[in-house]
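mind reviewing this fold:
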Amino acid sequence: MEVANFVEGEARMVDKKSIEDQLQRIGFNQHAWGRQEVRELPNIILPDERIFECVNGIYEGGFALLVATDVRVLLIDKKPLNYLTVEDLRFDMINEIDYYHRVFGAHVDITTGNRELKFHTYNNRARLRKLIGHVQHRMADIKKRQDTHQEGQIQHLEQINEHLRTYLMAQYKHQDELRQKLEKAQHGADVVSPAPPRPSPELSDYLLAHGLKEQYEAQHGPWPSSSDVQNTEEATRQQGLLAEGLKEVFGRSHDKGRGHNRGHHGQHLDTNPLRIAYSKLPMALRNRKFGRPSLHAHSRAEDPRAAEVADVREAEAEFSSTGPAVAEPQPS
C-alpha cells in the first residue's frame, strides 16, 4: 500500500474539467460533502486513468473520500492547514476484502500485506457496494491474467526441456561420430571432423540466464526471492516518502542542503565559521575593554589577598547595616 504517489520535477496534472465530467457521469455530487478531497483529484489521477466510483465516509483518520478507478483504489483525506493523506491500493496488492452492511451504513475492510484499511459510510451504501463489486471484478481479471501468464511460463519451460533433450541427443550423436572418425584416422584414412551441433536460440538464452544466475550466487549468495524484492521496493518507497515528508516540513532548503551536516531530524545545519566569529565579536570587544562581567566581588580582585580584604569589608558593611541598635540614655 502506498501512502502517496510522488513524482520528482513537474507533475502531470489532469484537467479539472475532465475530473468534473467523470464525476458527473457516475452521478457523484462534487459540491457537497468532500469538496476538499475532490479538488485534489486532478493532482492524483493519472492522465489515462478513469474514475469508476466515489464514496464519502469515515476511516481511522477521520472523514475521507474512497475512489475506485480502472487501475487502483484511492483513499483521499484533505484537512485544514494543508494536511493531506493519500493511500494508494493497487488491485494486485489487495489480498482480502470484507464487506458488510447493516440498517444504518456499510463497512468494508481491505487488507494488503501488512496494512488494513477500514472504511465506513452511513448514507452511501449502494455506492460502496458498487465500488467493492468493481474492485472484486478487477482483482479476478488480474488473477486470471496471472494464471494465464503462469501457464505460458509452464509451456515455455516444457519447450525449453524439449529443446534441451534434442540438443543432448545431437551432442551424443556428435561424440559418436567423432569416435568413429578417430578410429578411421588411426588406420590412415582421411577424415573430416563433423560440425558440432548448435542449440536453438531459446535454449541458448536459457543456458545464458542459468549461467549468469550461478555466477551471481557464487559471488553474492543465494538468488533473492520475490518477497525479498518486495521488501527492497518497500524500503525504497519508504525512503522516498521520508524524503518528501522532510521536504514538506523543512522546506526546499532541506533538499538543497544534501551533502552537508544535518541534525537528528534531517534538518540542514549551517556551520559557517564567519557567522560564529561575528556573533562572538561584540562580547570579545566588551571583555577586552572592561573585563569579564561577574557578580562576585572577589572575582574582580587582582589577587587572592585583595579578594579576602574585599570580603571582610563587605561583611563589615553588612554587619553595620543590620547590627543591634545602641540604646540612647533617657533623661532623668
About this structure: The first strand starts at residue 51 and ends at 59. The mean pLDDT is 76.
